[in-house]
Every structure is written in structure tokens, then in C-alpha cells.
Amino acid sequence: MASQDRLPQLRKDVITGSWVIFSPARAKRPSDFKSKAPATASDPGYDHRRQCPFCSGNEHMCAPQIFRVPPDPSSDWKIRVIENLYPALDRNLKAADFDGDVLRGFGFHDVVIETPDHSVHLSDLSPREVGDVILAYKKRIEQLLTFDSIKYVFKNHGASAGASLSHSHSQIIALPIVPSNVSARIECLKEHFDRTGKCCLCEVQSNELLIDESAHFVSFVPFAATFPFEIWIVPRDHSPHFHELDDDKAADLGGLLKLMLKKMSTHLNDPPFNFMIQTSPVHTSGSEICSTHWYLQIVPQLTIAAGFEVATGCHLNPVFPEEAAKVLREVHVQI
Fold first, then answer.
1. For residue 38, is pLDDT > 60?
2. CA 214 to CA 199: how far, in whole Å?
3. Lower CB density within 10 Å: C or N end of the chain?
4. Phi/psi at 239 (nearest 5 deg)?
5. Quick count: other Cβ atoms within 10 Å of Cβ 88?
6. According to DSSP H, which parts of the chain are helical?
7. Bigger pLDDT: 213 or 309?
């Protein structure tokens, strides 16, 4: 049944506990859904060779480097991990202590520069090179886990329309608290496990929601997708923490991630997007190990949250997940 012919429906996301309203009358056909603002849009007067601090040769414009790949300084770098020049949190503060409802702003805010070439996007890299970027995320997260006061590490890749720093990069933020939406996700997963004896993300997904799969990962549109054409990539094997990933699985994930980004770019007119690694808190209790499962979430920026979403926390999605998955399955790209 075509999405525009279906009646509105509310679905509860068993992983986050949130409700999503699917309202197909608010959208065009899923096959016609396109971004109006390609992520590749840029200021024609912007000279990245002189102005972009992430380009090779402009390293002096950046905050201090944490590490690079390869580590040999006599060779050209492929990936750099640096401090954020304008950090949200201060790594130089003493470890955070609660004072009522106020917590000192200790934490880490880093940048992963994924390529030295300004014109190359993450999806342009080879599967192995995307895997190397993923391993750089893993290495930095493992370094941050050595700080006792760090409770949660968040990784985000954003490609925003017209961004002054359109050079492919990700951000890693290490927090002294566990964010409330992460706590809610962990609790929902535990409730599902206590009720069924199964990890929610280990269970086989409906074929209608499946997009593609690899040796170690499966990609699909979630049953209660918050956003149109949202994609999750989930490890086949149960794993609560992203940093448990090994080299072979990172390379495998690199291939599937590249494929999903290519499909999304081809069908949706190269939209601005974010992808986030939704992992478990650093100190996951033994009772939560069996129920928590990390995944990578890709969100193309196709809609804007309005007053209803802000006020209720309940999102409107104009595209049914089954329709979005079908469209993405049928997009053929070469990687």
C-alpha cells in the first residue's frame, strides 16, 4: 500500500519509549522525498585552501592535536584527532562534583578530521578508509574512558547545508553525566529484556524494514522511526559498547555505512545529515549488559521540529518506515 493511501498511525518505540505519529497526508510520495538544501552547498567566495583549518597545510590554524593516522610525522596524515577550538566543556577543570543541581563543566570536546582533502566526503572514501575513521573514533573513546569522572561519550558526524566548515569531520564529546534520553533508552531496553528474556536489537527485524546487511551488521529503518528515512546500523552480535569493535568489524561497518550514505545521497539529493553512535554508558551494570546494544543512527535533515514536537516530545513523520525501507532498498549504487 502506498504511503499516501494509508491512515495515520501512532507507534511506540520500544527502545526509547517515545511515541511517533506517522501522518502520510503531510508528505509527497516517499519516492519524491528530496532535500531542498544539499549538504554540498557552499559559499562561492570561500577559499578552503586558505581559510579551512581542517585542510592539509593549515594545521597551524587548529587547536592542539591529540593523535593522527598514521602516527609517523614524516608521512602525510590521513586522519587527525584534535581538541575543539571552541569546546562546549573544559578539559582543564578538575573532575566534576555535584553541588545541588549544578555541576562544574568538566569534560572533553574533540574533533575527528576524517580526510585531509576538503572536497572528499566520508562516503567518497573506500570501505577500508571509512573503517579506519571508525577505528579512530574507537581509539579516542578508549582514551577518554580512562578518566574516572567520565560517564558517557557521544559521537556525532554532521554535514550541514552551507556550513563554514564543510570539510568532513566528526565531534566527540565526553560528559561527566549520563544524558536523560540515554538513561531512558537503557531503561526501556532493560524492561524489554526483563519481560521477554531477549535483547530488543538482537531480535530479527521485519524484512519490510530491512535495507541491506553485511557479515557483521544489518541496516534497517526502525519500526517507529522518529525522522523520515532514518537508518540504523546494528551489530549482529550482541554488544553493549561501541569501543568493543575489532578491526575486521570496523572494516565491515565501513562498507555498510558507505553504502547507506551513498543510497541516502542519491535518492534524497545529498541532504544535510547527522549520524550518531548510540552506545551504552561507560559504567554499565552487570544487569544491563544483556539488554543494552549499541547502534549507529543516521538522520537526514529533511524536516524541522515545530511547536508540537517541542511541546510534546512526540514527533511527526510523514513517511512510513516500510515505505522508506523499500525505496532505499531499490536505490542501486556502487561502492
1. no
2. 20
3. N
4. -160, 115
5. 12
6. 48-51, 127-144, 180-196, 247-268, 286-289, 307-312, 321-329
7. 213
C-alpha 308: how far from chain center: 25
Least confident among 37-51, 194-208, 297-311: 37-51
Active site members? 169
Fill in the amino acid letter for 131: G
Residues comprising the chain, all counted: 335
User: What is the full DSSP assignment across 102-118?
Assistant: EE--B-EEEEEE--S-T
Give CA torsion, residues 331, 156, 318, 234, to 10 deg: 60
Backbone angles phi, psi at 43, to 5 degrees: -75, 120
In the three-class reduction of DSSP (H, G, I as helix; E, B as strand; rest coil), residue 131 is classed as helix
pTM for this predicted structure? 0.90
Q: Is the peptide bond before 300 cis (omega within 30 degrees of 0)?
A: no
CA neighbor of 185 nearest in space, from 240, 145, 132: 240
Give the H or E element holding residue 19: strand 19-22
Section 81-101 average pLDDT: 83
Backbone angles phi, psi at 278, to 5 degrees: -95, 95
In this structure, the number of other CB atoms found within 10 A of the CB of residue 149 comes to 16
Is 70 exceeded by the pLDDT of residue 13? yes
Fill in the amino acid letter for 191. E
Q: What angle do CA 20, 24, 26 make, to 5 degrees?
A: 100
Three-class DSSP category at 214 = coil
Backbone dihedral angles phi then psi of residue 323, each to the nearest 5 degrees = -70, -40
Determine if residue 118 is left, alpha or beta; phi over 0 gives left, psi from -120 to 50 gives alpha, anything else beta.
alpha
Task: Please give the DSSP secondary-structure letter assigned to residue 204.
Answer: P
